[in-house]
Amino acid sequence: MIRVALKGLARRKLRAALTAIAIVIGVAMVSGTFILTDTIKSAFGTVFTQVYKHTDAVVTGKSVVGSGEGEEKGRNTPSFSQSLLARVQALPGVAEAQGGIADSASLVGRDGKVISGGGAPSLAFSVHAHGNQRFNPLELVAGTWPSGPEEVAIDANTAEKKHYSVGQTIGVIARGPEQRLRISGIAKIGGVSSLGGATMAIFDFPVAQRLFDKVGKLDSISVAAKPGFSPARLVSEIRPLLPANAQVRSGEGQAQQSTKETNGFLSIIQDFLLAFGGVALFVGSFVIANTLSITIAQRTRELATLRTLGATRRQVLRSVMMEALVIGAIAAVAGLFLGLGLAKGLNSLFVSFGIDLPQAATVFATRTIIVSLLVGVVITLIAALRPAIRATRVPPISAVREGAVLAPSRFARFSTVSAAVTVAAALGLMLIGLFVGSLSTTQRLLAIGVGAAAMFVGVAMLAKTLVPPLAAVLGWPATRIGGVAGSLARGNAMRNPARTASTASALMIGLALVTLVSVLAAGLKSTFESSINSLFSADYALTATNNFSPISTASETALRSVPGVTVVSGVRAGAGRAFGSKINVAGVEGNVSRVIRVKWKVGSQSVPGELGYSGAFINKDYAKELHLHVGSPITVETPAGKTMHLEVRGIFEQPKGGSPYGDVTISTSRFDAEYQSPQNVYAFADVAGGASAATTAKLKDALASFPDAKIATEHEFKDNQEQGINTLLNLLYVLLSLSIIVSLFGIVNTLVLTVFERTRELGMLRAVGMTRRQMRRMIRYESIVTALIGAALGIPVGIVLALMVGQAIEYPAFTIPVGTLVVFIFAAIIAGLLAAIFPARRASRLNVLQALQYE
After folding, report:
1. Rounded to two decimals, what is the model's pTM?
2. What are the phi and psi torsion angles at 711 (to 5°)?
3. Does residue 650 register a pLDDT over 90?
């Protein structure tokens, strides 16, 4: 039977290839994800290992509240006193120790714009130009290290891409306005010339201290041990000297910690991409099950003949599963190696969406091979199991019956009830995951994921009941436009509801997920826009050019000098710890109520101007959670370990679209006194006479020395802030398109197989006068009707899922993007047309005489 299965598979090469494509794409996504993330992890691991190669111990700053929102390296991770260096150098086990500065500084190109690598950081380092370079992680490619305030060294990647060389000048923004510095050298870090899109600005040590307001402070101390002194012993010797805002690790431990931090971020990307690979494989399983069901129905006489010759049910089952195993194995291997190319494509995709990560030699791990092959084969076998069991029900008598078909199983009459029960159970499981508060995050996600998958299965089971009325309605335009060909197409879609439903279900899943994302994004956008409309009372907003990085407070000061400007008010942001939990802390100026208006539960618009040194205001949710009221004391610990004793002076209503302030908001004077290198997240300005083109030009001129900042009107500010949502949305669309591509191959598969099945029928249509063009038109209309059924099922399911998820996470608004959904419907029509190209051409080329003789 195995030989029979393999020979049969060899005779049906096209069908096998079309079936395998669904698995190839899904496995390629899994393989490509592992290859991409493993390669990036390897690059980071190599860099950090090289950086700390000659270091036995490293002292770094330690944030008391931990890292996270509102913090950036060198900004809120605290520095420590330079006096610690002398005490470390005096230890018995220390052979050598050297302090360093690490911060962020942007490079400015010849076009006056910040050189940005798609959201990658703008790194800044110090070097001891005339000292020992033992601890220097940087390696000169050309020139010399900077040795004065007029010099800077840059990274080799920027130099190559922007065509800079030693001796030329480049703009640099550290704290304050842009400076033009001479390039003294070009360097690389950790043995690699590029850290993805990150840029590097390298300064002489005392210059770096002055530029970043860290005179008398250090960000790190690199230590080498005396011979015979182990790193562990050295760390133990240093630890008692450390203040609360510093920590020490061995060089190897620091490399491992840095690698662990980057791997945590990369693991999120990996899980994110694997989820889309799983969706593609899930859709692929529908395609495989449908394809095998059709081929088994078409091979009824063949299987019956085998039964007549003595084959048992088990042998028939084994034969069909062997076909599936071979298809799955070949598809998995193809997908595994296709993943090599897809990894490069995914990297290019991330770069185009602003995520540029470093690369190294391609890593093709054993885990990648094993997981990819197992996933491809197992999913194929699972998808093939039901069709294979169905094949065992072929009675031997069918061998002598022309046009014999499988009789429905004894459970067929319960199919609608089963579908309804499955949908109900799926909804119940999702509701448990969404609303039961005692579940862990993992349990909650598992319940929602399994429930959503069961929902798709249940709707697919129910679809065959819905297909006839849907096909009748959706196929009506085809009967009007396409005449006889359109009428036949609608009839073909209704002829076998189960087959049409199964084909449309694959597309349904992709469109449901796309709809889910679109509805949630539309709700977020509408809420954000209404929030801006109610909060934003200024004429202009000042933000970073990339919309999210902090900007110098000096840029805010520059606006004040413009004639006609009546109000300029900046908002700072940082992290803190209060009542045992991490919180967001904001700093505002007393006039902030003139540019940002919030509703006050307790207090008024005058509260920000009355904060003084110890006052603070909080949002209503934070007050409710901790039972705070006006007059309540709050103790806030800063990242550097400083303690602020504050008193609540007001409580405001937190807008649905997000608060412009922190959990706790204090005056800028207190914020600047407690936080290292304070910067604005944004600033707002009012001008006499309101916004105008002439005023905008004046404001831009005032900001000419701040290329990292941009001025925007209210409308422009909203558009700029929504760019991040749009970018993420487009990325999700691209990744979800993989599942839609898989479903298109499912439609192609079904149409090709139905052309095989209806060979004599098509031959007769040609014999009675149907032209080749009408034949192609009929297949196209049938494909479009099938695609529209997928849309008719998928879009409502996506809306329901979005509503449930929105309720569970207390989403601020539920908005149905009608325009976007209409686009999806037209996209489904285009998808149907594309899927029909090959089957339609194949049908139109049938030889009439041969088709009439076909059995």
Report:
1. 0.78
2. -105, 140
3. yes
